[in-house]
C-alpha cells in the first residue's frame, strides 16, 4: 500500500500494542523465550499510525526499526512488558496483544552462571500473568484484540481463546502459515463469526485487520 491513500479510520484514537517475544532470565547469560519475529506487530503498529492513531508499541527483544509515527517502548520479561502496557494504557481506545508472551518464567533467577554438572537439571517455572486477559477484564477496558498462533485446530482454539478472554476480536493463524516470514494467512474472529482474509504480505494484512477493528470499534462506541 506504499504511496496509496490510507483511510484515517483511527483518527483521534490511541492504540497500545505488544509485539515480539519476551525473555525470561534463568541466570545472567541464559533465558527462556518464544519464537516471534515481531514483524506482524510492527506492521500493525505502522498501519494504526497510518490510519491516524496515536500509537504506543510495547516491544519485546527484536531488531526491527521503529515504524514512522509510532512511540516504541522496550520490554524484556513478561512482567516488564505488563508494567509498560499498564503505564501506556491510560486514554487508550484500543489494545492489541500481538506479543508471544512466555506463559512461564523461572521461579528463581540464579545470581551467577549455572555451571554444568553432567546431571539432569530441573528448572522450576511459575506462570506469568496474562497481559491481554488482564487488560480485557478491566472495568474501563479499551477495545481489545488478541492474536493466536496455533499448530492445529485453529478455529476451535482461536474462538475458545477469544471467548475465554472476553475479546470482541481475535486474529488467528496456523504457525505453519506465517511464522518468521513476510506473508501470512489469517482468520479474524468476532461475535459475527469467522472472516478469513486472503493470504497476503503482513503489511497488507495489517491494513485489513485495522479496517475490520475500526468498523467494530465505531459500531461499539459511536
Ligand atoms: N497473551 C498475553 N499475555 C500472556 C499470554 C498471552 O497478553 N501471558 C496474549 C497474546 O499476546 C495473544 C493472546 O494472549 O494476543 C493469545 O496468546 P496465546 O499464547 O495464543 O494464548 P494463551 O492464552 O497463552 O494460551 P496457550 O499458550 O495455552 O495456547
Ligand atoms: Ca501462550
Automatic annotation (TrEMBL):
> Cofactor(s) for this protein?
FMN; Mg(2+)
Which residues does the record give as CTP binding sites?
103, 113, 129-132, 147, 161, 165
What are the recorded GO MF terms, alphabetically? Answer: phosphopantothenate--cysteine ligase activity; phosphopantothenoylcysteine decarboxylase activity
**Domain DNA/pantothenate metabolism flavoprotein C-terminal as annotated: residue spans:** 10-215
- Write out the entry's keywords from A to Z: Decarboxylase, Flavoprotein, FMN, Ligase, Lyase, Magnesium, Metal-binding, Multifunctional enzyme
In residue numbers, the region (Phosphopantothenate--cysteine ligase) covers: 15-222
Q: What's its catalytic activity? A: (R)-4'-phosphopantothenate + L-cysteine + CTP = N-[(R)-4-phosphopantothenoyl]-L-cysteine + CMP + diphosphate + H(+); N-[(R)-4-phosphopantothenoyl]-L-cysteine + H(+) = (R)-4'-phosphopantetheine + CO2
Coiled coil located at which positions?
none
Q: How is the cofactor bound?
A: Binds 1 FMN per subunit.
Q: What is its EC number?
A: 4.1.1.36, 6.3.2.5
Which pathway is this protein assigned to?
Cofactor biosynthesis; coenzyme A biosynthesis; CoA from (R)-pantothenate: step 2/5; Cofactor biosynthesis; coenzyme A biosynthesis; CoA from (R)-pantothenate: step 3/5
Similarity comment text for this entry: In the N-terminal section; belongs to the HFCD (homo-oligomeric flavin containing Cys decarboxylase) superfamily.
What is the name of the protein in this document?
Coenzyme A biosynthesis bifunctional protein CoaBC
Gene source species: Thauera mechernichensis
Recite the lineage of the species. Answer: Bacteria, Pseudomonadati, Pseudomonadota, Betaproteobacteria, Rhodocyclales
Q: Which residues of the full protein are shown?
A: 177 to 398 of 400
Amino acid at each position: 500500500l506504499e504511496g496509496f491513500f490510507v483511510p484515517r479510520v483511527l483518527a483521534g484514537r490511541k492504540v497500545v500494542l505488544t509485539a515480539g517475544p519476551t525473555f525470561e532470565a534463568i541466570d545472567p547469560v541464559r533465558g527462556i523465550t518464544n519464537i516471534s519475529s515481531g514483524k506482524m506487530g510492527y506492521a500493525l503498529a505502522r498501519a494504526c499510525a497510518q490510519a491516524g492513531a496515536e500509537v504506543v508499541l510495547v516491544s519485546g527483544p527484536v531488531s526491527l526499526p521503529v515504524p514512522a509515527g509510532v512511540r516504541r517502548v522496550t520490554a524484556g520479561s513478561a512482567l516488564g512488558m505488563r508494567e509498560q502496557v499498564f503505564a501506556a494504557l491510560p486514554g487508550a481506545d484500543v489494545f492489541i496483544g500481538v506479543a508471544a508472551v512466555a506463559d512461564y518464567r523461572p521461579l528463581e533467577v540464579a545470581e551467577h552462571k549455572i555451571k554444568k554438572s553432567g546431571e539432569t537439571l530441573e528448572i522450576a517455572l511459575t506462570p506469568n500473568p496474562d497481559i491481554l486477559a488482564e487488560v480485557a477484564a478491566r472495568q474501563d477496558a479499551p477495545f481489545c484484540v488478541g492474536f493466536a498462533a496455533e499448530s492445529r485446530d485453529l478455529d476451535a482454539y482461536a474462538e475458545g481463546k477469544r471467548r475465554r478472554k472476553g475479546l470482541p476480536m481475535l486474529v488467528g493463524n496456523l504457525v505453519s502459515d506465517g511464522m518468521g516470514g513476510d506473508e501470512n494467512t489469517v482468520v479474524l474472529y468476532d461475535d459475527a463469526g469467522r472472516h478469513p482474509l486472503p493470504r497476503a504480505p503482513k503489511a497488507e494484512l495489517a491494513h485489513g485487520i485495522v479496517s475490520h477493528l475500526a468498523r467494530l470499534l465505531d459500531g461499539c462506541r459511536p
